[in-house]
Structure formats: structure tokens, C-alpha cells
Amino acid sequence: MSDTDAPRSQPPQDDELRPTGRRNARLGQTVWDMVRSLALVLLAVAVVLLLTWRPQPEAVKVVDPTPVLVQARIEAPYPVLYPADLDAAWRPTSARWAVTEASDPDPAWHVGFVTPADTYAQIGQSASESESYIAQQTGGGEVVSVDGEWQRYEGPGAQGDIERSLVRVVGGVTVVVGGTASWEELQFLADRLSSEALPG
């Protein structure tokens, strides 16, 4: 083999990567920059969520007052009332037929609603004519006017709202339509009270 046939070593190319054994300072710097940028983005998202977050109202738990109403009508010595022709916007949330501390010894009928305006209205009825029963049902309110057979009571509500009540006593039976609802909504219920109406 002649000298001209011998393999020749190639000179190193300028762009060939060669390990140096040293840490790449720029690589570490780039990772740190990414971490800082991500932290800033997360912080900005947290601030936006904090400023725009609003607590969701609790879902209304609707009950069927029919069984309690039927029992009250069987046991009561007077016609037990329920509002007729209510649409689905009136959501019943409670119903009771029981002796209360204020109505004792007479049982009292109670049904409560969330109104179409998302306020509260309730109907209370008992053979009790005691001042304590009326005070309990009206939240300790006082008479502010008389509208036909109904007396209008107003008092401070438990949540700082005004508690309004329509009260009438006829034939020894006290009926109260009250709550934080407007006078218009309370009168709407009072006008529809019926001894034959059923929920639904």
C-alpha cells in the first residue's frame, strides 16, 4: 500500500459538538427563568380568581308538605289553610304540625316558602290566641296598620331584614302570613288561602 492510500484523519469541524465536562450556565439560567415566569403567571391567576370569586348561594331544599298538611287537616278542629294555585316559583322548604312552646297546648300548622323573589314567606295557623304565639310568628313585631281583616305587623328580622306579617284571628283561630317577603307577596299568599287546596 502506498503512502497515498493510507487513511487520513479529518480535521475537527468548528460546529462539531464536543463535551467539555463543564456545566452549561446558560441552561440553568433558562430553567430558572421558566420557573419564575410560571410562578408569576400562577400568581396573576390567583389574584384574578380572588377578585372575581363569589360564593354560590346554597341550593334550596324543596320539601313536599302534602303528608303533613293532610295529617293537620285530619286532626285539627278547624279548617287548615294552604295557598291555592301556586306556581313552581314558590318553593316549599318546611312543613310542621306540632305543639310549639308558644302555641302550647294547641298544635300549630306551619309551612314555609322561598318566594319567586328569593325571599322567605311562611304561613302559621293555630287555635292559640295567645300573645306569645303571635309574637313568635311575627318575630316580635308591632302593629303598623290594619287592612280589612288583616293586621299588619313589622319588626326586625333575624338577618337584619324587616320581618312583615299579616295577622288575623277569626273564630278562635290565629292565622299569620309573614316573613321577609314584600307586602305584595304576603298578600298574594293570604288572598289564596284555602281549606281545600293541596300542594302541586
Helix and strand layout, with pairings?
Elements: H1 25-52, H2 66-75, E1 82-83, E2 91-99, E3 107-114, E4 120-126, H3 131-138, E5 142-147, E6 150-156, E7 162-170, E8 173-179, H4 183-191, E9 193-194
Antiparallel strand pairs: 1-9, 2-3, 3-4, 4-8, 5-6, 6-7, 7-8
How would you describe what is shown here?
Helices cover 28% and strands 28% of the residues. It is α+β, with helices and mostly antiparallel strands and 200 residues long. The chain has a domain at 66-194: Phosphorylase Kinase, domain 1. It is elongated. The relative contact order is 0.13.
Please give the largest β-sheet. 7 strands, antiparallel
Amino- and carboxy-terminal Cα gap = 110 Å
Radius of gyration: 37 Å
The largest beta-sheet arranges its strands as: 2-3-4-8-7-6-5
Shape: elongated
Number of H- or I-type helical stretches: 4
Question: Top keywords for this entry?
Answer:
alpha+beta; 7-stranded antiparallel β-sheet; Phosphorylase Kinase, domain 1; 200 residues; elongated; two-stranded antiparallel sheet; 9 strands
Give a quick precis of the structure.
This protein is of the alpha+beta class and 200 residues long. The chain has four helices and nine strands.
